[in-house]
Amino acid sequence: MRFRHLAGIAAGALTAGLLTVPALTGAAHAATALPAKFTCDVPAFEAQMDYTTDIALTLKRTSATGVSVVAELGDMPGIVPVPIASMDLKAKLSLTVDGAATTLTAAHTAKNMASKAPIDLPTFTGAGVSSTSTANVTVTRLQVDAVAMGIPVAVVCTPVGAIAGSVPVEGTVAPVAKIGSSTKVKVKVSKKKVATATVTVTGKKAKPTGKVTVTVKKGKKTVKKGKLTLKRGKVTLKTKKLKKGKYKAIVSYAGSKTYKASKKTVTFKVK
User: Fold this and answer.
1) Do 94 and 62 form a contact (C-beta atoms < 8 A)?
2) Which domains does the chain have, with CATH numbers?
């Protein structure tokens, strides 16, 4: 048995009051409801229908820049004109979180559906990118793919007007405790009285990254200073020709997201 033309189904559903979407139940207390209206195309029937609902959104912090996204939508108007034992349903909800596009997915099997029964959409889940405590969310598309009585039916919905709002992000991510670093410096003076300071920064995990400041002084006078970027945990600074005397090489590692800052000072002589 094949489906009737959807135009007739939609008209029947409207008469029966099935296009009135019931209030959402069971949504989390922290959910933010975005009023939504869609125009839905059903290519299999060369027809359209309207779908009005609230989208209850919950965002939870998963990392410094990541959030999980959960969306609950009200029932869609029924599109099946006869009772069916089961209907496999997969759905995608496209949206942006702080401007970055993502897609939420959902799937379930509806059982023992009456004729023209509203379609209970499953919970949509996915992930987004946001580092703020409140994220700007915009819904851009909804697609529902159903298979009933062996017949595939796609429902593609586009927003009527903007579906957007600010959604609080639940939770915080505890900062990762930094670990200690160790800074060492070796100074070699050439026959031409040029000093080369080689700095090595180490730690228990990967090779440290970040900035190192090397300052060469004679007494209170700075004769050479450089702010260098670590490469494989090392940096090198060369001076110009130095006069005879006693010098200090003062090294300061600024630290990184992983490592704490560290310092080291050595003295050397130019003969």
Assistant:
1) no
2) 6-170 (2.60.40), 182-270 (2.60.40.1930)
* Closest to 68 in 3D by CA, of 58, 77, 78, 55: 58
Alpha-carbon distances of 199 from 178, 221, 237, 262, rounded to whole Å: 21, 21, 8, 12
Q: In what order do the strands lie in the sheet with 194-202?
A: 182-189, 194-202, 234-241
* Edge-to-edge strand ranges of the sheet holding 245-253: 221-229, 211-218, 245-253, 262-270
**Is residue 31 within 8 Å of 69, Cβ to Cβ?**
no
CA distances from 105 to 14, 90, 144, 250 (A): 28, 8, 10, 56
- Written as six digits, the tokens of 12 are 């029947």
**Cα-based distances in Å from 82 to 22, 107, 128, 144:** 22, 22, 39, 19
Residue 104 CB burial class (10 angstroms; 0-12, 13-18, ≥19) = buried
In whole angstroms, give the CA distance from residue 80 to residue 17: 15
Summary mean pLDDT of the chain: 87
Distance CA 258, CA 173 (A): 15
Q: Are the C-beta atoms of 94 and 140 separated by less than 8 Å?
A: yes
Residues 144 and 109: beta-carbon distance below 8 Å = no
Q: pLDDT digits over 144-196, tens only? A: 998 877 889 899 999 999 999 999 999 887 777 899 999 999 999 999 999 99
pLDDT score, position 239: 96
